[in-house]
Amino acid sequence: MSETIPSGTDHLPQSVSVERRQISEADSRRANGPDWDRYADEYQATHGAFLGDTGFIWGPEGLSEDEAGALGPVAGRRVLEVGSGAGQCSRWVTARGGNGIGLDLSMRQLQHSRRIDEETGVVVPSVVGTATQLPFADDSFDVVFSSFGALQFIADLPAALSEAARVLRTGGRFAFSITHPTRWSFPDDPGVEGLTASQSYWDRTPYVETDPETGTPSYVEHHRTLGDWVEVLAGNGFRLVALKEPEWPEKHDRTWGGWSRTRGLLIPGTAVFVADLG
Ligand SMILES: C[S@@+](CC[C@H](N)C(=O)[O-])C[C@H]1O[C@@H](n2cnc3c(N)ncnc32)[C@H](O)[C@@H]1O
Predict the structure, then answer these.
(1) Closest residue CA from atom 9 of ligand 1
(2) Pick from 80, 270, 38: which is nearest to 173 by CA?
(3) Which end of the chain is flanked by fewer CB atoms within 10 Å, N or C?
């Protein structure tokens, strides 16, 4: 669903072929790293002001962490952001006295992060890496979070959850936002066409775009149902403490991929899971 995410494919050329098919973790990563490198400049130019250089929003509805309080207190805490992009959320953490660290698959996204570090003077140390193999020691963080970061782009979700649990201390907080799973039942259209369910909610077959020139996958997304998310959290020792489904604010009128006022007033677009380890 090319624009199910508030991310990368508003630019989708018509020649790209789109299908639902199985794809491995390695191939998902091989597709999405270069895709985010290609798209990063446009993403930051289009959405950077809405995100805010030191802002923290959980999704296109504009729910801020100031409102949500999903991370709990961050001052003095070691906080890892997975799929950190240009580090806006981690900069919010650091500005509030936390030790924010970013990790992202895309070098170009991290170059934007460095640029904003220099512009704002609020610096987020960041590393290139993948959510399924975190380059950190066990128990190194009090909080791990992801705002529309890696989790819906990876095939091996159990590996990512196991890694989050490994680097968190017992009692640590794990919070993340994703496209609300129910959105996968609808065409990815911000207009009224996007309001009629047309695909099975229970079809977990990944969404894959293929580059017509190379014949290789160029963008991948993975769908899980709400029940799948609860199960994988519980299976990795997490206790779900909240599932936030931000409502579309009355005066908000911004279209971001498949998110719009038209759809947002009727169906949820974002799910924010909040869980504690152990
Ligand atoms: C929609 S952007 C969100 C970035 C940032 N959280 C924000 O709100 O702008 C998704 C980010 O996830 C990153 N990403 C995708 N797959 C990843 C993976 N396997 N591991 C780490 N990051 C990944 C992308 O490079 C991209 O920067």
Answers:
(1) 85
(2) 80
(3) C
